[in-house]
Specification:
Fic-like fold, 56% helix, binds adenosine-5'-triphosphate, binds magnesium ion
């Protein structure tokens, strides 16, 4: 049976070619998919906890791709590869690599010059990378894990609590998360920082 998944607000639907990249053909529902992805992500989180990386390693395209591959590589063939189609969120697909390069340059600069406090660097990075939307799917979870990796590795701070939620369900917490992102789109990052620490 083919994969038939329903999408909630603020999620990016997969096209047919992307759906064909599913490695586990027994998955047919959104719940099963969420569960397999979550298991894969858990392994990636453990990998991030066991390792320590400097800024010159983290703020690279290779690291961004490697982390996505670790998070979704058991489930999707396209894990760790930039998307090749346009989505309802994000820049045109052919702009992804250049926009990401600009963000990585900015982030290295922020870090070296202490332009913003540590948490703000992590959350600004999270906001910008999910706005680019590098991958066919999994961008939200990837961006949140990156923010955690940034604070834990570069500033020895606690990882974020992200509304004390997995943000999978379309509940009030997810609504607050999406509104904080929209406020950040308009240039004010504080709501998203507050949400991440809630
Ligand atoms: N209106 C919006 N403005 C800005 N960003 C948005 C908006 N709606 C969704 N997003 C971002 O896109 C992400 C969803 O993208 P995608 O489906 O690729 O990621 P995901 O990891 O599967 O999602 P999730 O956040 O549900 O775990 C959300 O987490 C959010 O960060
Ligand atoms: Mg999604």
């Amino acid at each position: 049976m083919a994969l038939e998944i329903e999408y909630q607000e603020g999620q990016t639907p997969l096209d047919e070619e992307e759906k064909a990249g599913l490695r586990i053909d027994t998955i047919t529902t959104r719940e099963e998919l969420d569960e397999f992805e979550q298991l894969n992500i858990q392994k990636a989180v453990e990998w991030t906890i066991k390792n320590r990386w400097p800024a010159k390693k983290i703020f690279t395209e290779d690291f961004m791709l490697a982390l996505h591959a670790k998070m979704y590589g058991d489930v999707w063939t396209w894990a760790g590869n930039f998307r090749k189609s346009n989505k309802n969120i994000g820049v045109p697909y052919y702009q992804v690599a250049t926009d990401l390069r600009l963000l990585l340059d900015d982030a290295r600069y922020w870090h070296e010059n202490e332009t913003y406090p540590p948490e703000e660097i992590a959350i600004r990075f999270k906001h910008r990378i999910v706005a680019i939307h590098c991958f066919p799917n999994g961008n939200g979870r990837h961006s949140r894990l990156i923010a955690d990796v940034i604070v834990a590795n570069l500033y020895k701070s606690e990882v974020f609590s992200w509304g004390s939620s997995t943000l999978v369900k379309a509940d009030d917490t997810r609504t607050n998360y999406i509104s904080a992102l929209r406020v950040a789109d308009r240039g004010t990052i504080n709501d998203l920082i507050k949400f991440a620490r809630s």
